[in-house]
What does this fold into?
Amino acid sequence: MHRSNSFRKLKRKVGGKTVLHYKRKANSKPHCAICDQELNGISEKGAKTRKTNARIFGGVLCAKCTQDVIKFGNRVEQGIMKLDEVGIKQRAYVLQMVAH
Ligand SMILES: [Zn+2]
It folds into this structure.
């Protein structure tokens, strides 16, 4: 258990001796799947409703990337843009948009 990197080591003095204590690391904050920016308005703790928002791709993409994906999705649907012209990171999400 203590070989895992999920635990952080704490040096604590107990009765004049330094002892290693282990504490579970905190969960990492959720990040956007495209630009890796920290997601706003989302908590890493609590119920499902706290970990997402009602928007499309809520809890996965940030507002700016969602905007781009919706924009590209509409352009692909209308034939103004080809799927190859969409960035590789956005492509999977644009495909989901078009499939709906
Ligand atoms: Zn983003």
